[in-house]
Amino acid sequence: MRFVLAVLALAGLTAACETAEGFGRDVSNLGEEITEEAQ
After folding, report:
1. Which of 37, 16, 36, 5 is nearest to 26 (CA)?
2. What is the radius of gyration, based on Cα positions, of the chain?
3. Pick from 8, 11, 27, 39: CA 20 to 30 A from residue 20's CA?
4. DSSP state of 24
5. Mind listing the pLDDT tens digit for each residue in 5-14?
6. How far is 5 from 11, CA to CA, in rounded Å?
7. Where are the alpha helices (DSSP H) in the chain?
8. In angstroms, rounded to a whole number, what is the distance separating the alpha carbons of residues 11 and 7?
9. CA–CA dist 22, 34 (Å, integer)
10. How far apart are CA 16 and CA 35, in angstroms?
11. Is the pTM of this model over 0.70?
12. What angle do CA 27, 6, 22 make, to 5 degrees?
């Protein structure tokens, strides 16, 4: 549930990101941060 909320928050924060590539990088960075926190 927290992951879903984090993704939704990220989507809101990255609304200014104008390209799909930029959004993909943002999501990738979020995934890496979540992985690091999980370890």
Report:
1. 16
2. 10
3. 39
4. H
5. 887 777 776 6
6. 10
7. 2-13, 20-38
8. 6
9. 19
10. 25
11. no
12. 20
Q: Are 26 and 17 in contact (CB under 8 A)?
A: yes
Position 25, amino acid: R
Residue 17: closest CA among 3, 28, 4: 28
Structure tokens at 18: 């104008």
Tokens of 31: 């995934």
Enter the tokens of residue 5. 């909320």
Task: Encode 2-38: b = buried (16+ Cβ within 10 Å), e = exposed.
Answer: eeeeeeeebeeeeeebeeeeeeeeeeeebeeeeeeee
Residue 16 DSSP code: T
